[in-house]
Amino acid sequence: MKPGVIILAVVCLVIAGLTTVFAGPAISNTVSNFFIVVVLVVGLGVHVGNSGIVSFGHPAFMAIAAYLTAILVLPVARKKALMPNLPDILGDISLNPVVAIMITLIFLALIGGLIGLAISRLNGASATIATLGLLIITHSLLVGGTTFTRGAQAVYGVPKVVTPLIAAGAAIAAIILADWFKYSRWGLVARAAREDAVAAAASGISVQRSRALVFTISIALTALGGGLFALHLGVFSPKEFYFNLTFSLLAMLIVGGGTSTTGAVAGVAIITLLSEGLRRVEPGFDIGGVTVPALFGLTTIGTSLALICTLYLRPEGLMGLKELDDHLTWVRPLRGYKRKNLSRAALSGPKHLRLLEVHGITKRYGGVTALQDVSLALNPNEILGLIGPNGSGKSTFLSCASGIQAFDEGTVQVNGIAMRQSDPTAFAHAGVGRTFQNIRLFSRLSVYENVAAALVAVPGAADAPSIAQILSRVNLAGMDDRIAETLSYGQQRRLEIARALATCPSFLLLDEPAAGMNSTETAELANIICSLRDVDGLGILLIDHDLPMILRLSNRVAVLNEGHLIAVGSPAEIRENPKVTAAYFGERSADQNLEAYTAT
Ligand code: ADP
Ligand code: MG
């Protein structure tokens, strides 16, 4: 277990222990409540932090958990009086609270999984709006579904069994689970998808599956918080689980830092202390003979101000992206990510064909035909240069050949297998790696994590290169802990290549990898690209505007002009091809033009 987690756990235990020994019922109550809120905010943080999608809907799941736990533990006589129409299977039982919480957790994890599968298909704001819908629907169901609830009236008489120590235990469990998940291979790929879903998919990550898993775990923790909430308060009604609660939980998470488990705990502490303080002065007080009048709503105003100040001064929250461990200089970041090994059958499977074939692709954007009936094959052990004027369809071709872009006609086959369109994850698994014209890294993850995310997503041979080997291959050795967005342009482009290499590709498609590089960096890059062909036997599709470089490195060169493939041949043939010179340079001779081009 990581030191930061141990420190948090010890602090929780000490607070709970001191409260148990010394405090009266009022403070015990507040402390228990605090720990339950920690469970809820950490649970919400698992979703918001790992998927990057804000949820307004978590209180809905908390409500279902609270009601289910209450129904399971209420004494039968009380239950018959409160909810006479309950089905017998629920009405005639009264379970031990621990069993009830277990059942609640499993039931809510199942619901969370199903809803997570649906929500994971949505991106960003749409997903957030969907969670808002869930909150409103659930609230209406709770008020209207009087068979299982008491409508808007409160359910009461639930045994109040939660002590500060029990609540602290739950908070510690939530912190351990959240921290473990965040740094597990599933958490890593989810965080990668949070940073850039398109790049994640092109790196072999199954974005939807990872989001659904994040949602499920987050809902399971929320269910734990909801169940404990019922067993702590003993009385509650649907209004407890509505916008006010959504606001408080999100405020705590945002103030603490949405992507950090430590931040979630810190946020709960700060907002709880602030609210408790303001609640005491809210009814008004005397100080030095001066009477300060009552200020109703002060607690909410204070929380809102804390939220606004955070968003203004420190948008990523108190802890930012960091955990406690990141501040402890003696703690080394996790380095345990391993690739899953391919089975023997898969190793000798279709991969040995090693051919990326694009056949008859046509792609239209509204009125623009970006590609018209383009066929091109990429072999192993070759660099295929792809050139053409701006807007000639090079990037579109690369995106069709890597499963990012759907097309209107044609097929793409990888190693003899026809690929489904718009399924970049499948392309990555079939051995097609790529980089992007506009760099798309997992910006706020470290160099190491950028490569690791792709490495854990795609299985490979047991002797495939490790993360350290891949990084040294692209001259990024020793940069493991740098955050990707802090790298220079040249380093970022090389990191993109490293990430693609982590998927053990047979083919590497590079979209203007030398763009924005100086001549030293370009030369360094050219060496890397050649060694990937000569040493590793990769088939490389290389798009670049640096024509001398393309002509020097490529075995074959293909030329696109206005979506048409106008020539494919050796660099010498391309240099002399009149159609190419006309399209690319105007009417002068190739050598004159090449000189002019190089001079600029
Ligand atoms: P290149 O990479 O050769 O510069 P692109 O493949 O980016 O060219 O673009 C080819 C053509 O398709 C251009 O006319 C461009 O405007 C159009 N195009 C590319 N992407 C899109 C898009 N997402 N939506 C609409 N048109 C696009
Ligand atoms: Mg382009």
Features:
elongated, alpha/beta, 600 residues, binds magnesium ion, 11% strand, 56% helix, binds adenosine-5'-diphosphate, 2 domains, 6-stranded mixed β-sheet, Rossmann fold, 26 helices, 4-stranded antiparallel β-sheet
Quick description:
The chain is of the alpha/beta class. It folds into 2 domains: 3-238, no CATH class; 356-598, Rossmann fold (3-Layer(aba) Sandwich). Helices cover 56% and strands 11% of the residues.
Architecture blueprint of SSEs:
Elements lengths: L2 H20 L2 H27 L6 H16 L2 H7 L5 H4 L5 H23 L4 H21 L19 H20 L1 H11 L1 H6 L4 H27 L9 H14 L4 H21 L3 E3 L2 E3 L5 H16 L10 H4 L16 H4 L8 E10 L2 E11 L3 E6 L6 H8 L7 E6 L2 E2 L5 H7 L1 E3 L12 H11 L9 H7 L15 H13 L5 E5 L7 H16 L4 E5 L3 H7 L2 E6 L2 E6 L1 H6 L1 H8 L4 H10 L1
Parallel strand pairs: 5-10, 5-11, 8-9, 9-10
Antiparallel strand pairs: 1-2, 3-4, 3-6, 6-7, 11-12
Helix pairs in contact: 1-2, 1-8, 2-8, 2-11, 2-12, 2-13, 3-6, 3-7, 3-11, 6-11, 8-9, 8-11, 9-11, 9-19, 12-13, 12-14, 13-14, 19-20, 19-21
The protein binds adenosine-5'-diphosphate and magnesium ion.
